[in-house]
Design a protein that fits this description.
3-stranded antiparallel beta sheet, 341 residues, 13% strand, Rossmann fold
Length: 341
């Protein structure tokens, strides 16, 4: 296994800020409060509630934010600040918990809800920088100008500061105070074209088992029955772990070739490659670095559990959307041009 990156990243998300800013970006300034969207949840469109549909359209892709942070190094700290009793925030809780994000509960004293996290988040960042001296990167997911002093102080303490904000709701001064600032819409994976088709899992040949006498008797009785033969079970979904789960929760493709969501092994690979290409501006990426990044995004990934002996074999099986260069001493991989955003 490749050695982990020396960079250690701390991620701090002003969740109210990013949710409100994204909604207002899609539906117009002030729309979040005008539509009273905070009391609704992110769910499939409801014909009786147009605001729910608007909320769905403005859904924030938390995975894209955390995947970008993991491209900088190992995420050692990740926190999201919000009032988690608010329905719109609560609808994201399972997604955040699945990515090991600490949910910090706030009780805003103002109705606007947008600036409740500023002081608490800033205090936690400075405390963490002194408490955890090996942190190298600080990622601030917000756009408020209130975080300018925090970004400047973090830089003064020797950390590389990265900001992530929504266009139209980000202070230009905050962007200037960071070492690097990313527009949310520019993050790899936020585009709708991030779906890919999952190639079929490798077929593992197994020797036929010897039937016992009891089994033969049972089968003979079943053969004489006039009932129709039951349909063969569908192929189990490819997983990143050993625990079985329904195909929908694993995000894999069906046998009919339906595109899979980003959470499957192929989606994980595509996200890692897109981030690697964007970060390094290189055509080819080292396979070790790519696998390392995939493990930072999803520690449960294991090519052997998927039926492949090596990571290179896993890459070869995804030849429909990746190319593998094995001509040199170091194997390299790249995303095919058709799958670039």
């Amino acid at each position: 296994m490749s050695e982990p990156s020396d960079a250690r990243v701390a991620v701090y998300i002003d969740f109210d800020n990013i949710i409100i800013s994204r909604y207002d970006q899609i539906h117009g300034r002030g729309s979040f409060h005008k539509h009273k969207a905070k009391n609704l949840v992110v769910q499939p469109p409801d014909t009786a509630a147009d605001v729910r549909h608007r909320l769905l359209e403005a859904t924030v892709d938390i995975d894209a934010v955390l995947d970008f942070a993991s491209s900088l190094g190992t995420v050692a700290i990740s926190r999201a600040y919000a009032d988690w009793s608010v329905p719109v925030n609560a609808s994201y809780r399972s997604q955040l918990v699945d990515r090991a994000v600490d949910l910090t509960q706030l009780f805003p004293t103002v109705a606007s809800m947008k600036n409740g996290a500023d002081i608490r988040l800033a205090i936690d960042v400075i405390e963490d920088l002194f408490r955890v001296p090996d942190l190298t990167h600080v990622v601030i997911v917000a756009g408020d100008s209130d975080y300018i002093a925090l970004a400047q102080r973090s830089k003064r303490l020797g950390r590389y500061v990265v900001g992530i904000g929504v266009a139209g709701a980000t202070s230009a001064s905050l962007a200037a105070a960071c070492d690097e600032f990313m527009d949310y819409d520019a993050l790899p994976g936020t585009a709708e074209d991030s779906l890919v088709e999952e190639p079929p899992a490798p077929v593992v040949e197994r020797a036929p088992k010897t039937r016992t006498r009891a089994a033969r008797t049972t089968e003979d009785k079943a053969a004489s029955n006039d009932a129709p033969e039951p349909a063969a079970p569908s192929r189990a979904p490819e997983q990143t772990g050993t625990t079985e789960a329904p195909a929908a929760s694993q995000g894999e493709t069906t046998d009919s070739g339906v595109p899979i969501p980003k959470r499957g092994p192929s989606g994980l690979l595509v996200r890692a490659l897109r981030l690697g290409h964007a970060k390094d501006d290189a055509e080819w990426l080292g396979t070790g670095a790519v696998k390392n990044h995939m493990l930072r995004m999803d520690p449960t990934f294991n090519e052997k559990a998927l039926g492949y002996r090596t990571f290179t074999e896993f890459l070869r099986s995804r030849g429909s959307f990746v190319e593998v260069d094995e001509t040199g001493t170091a194997r390299k991989v790249k995303l095919r041009a058709a799958f670039h955003p």
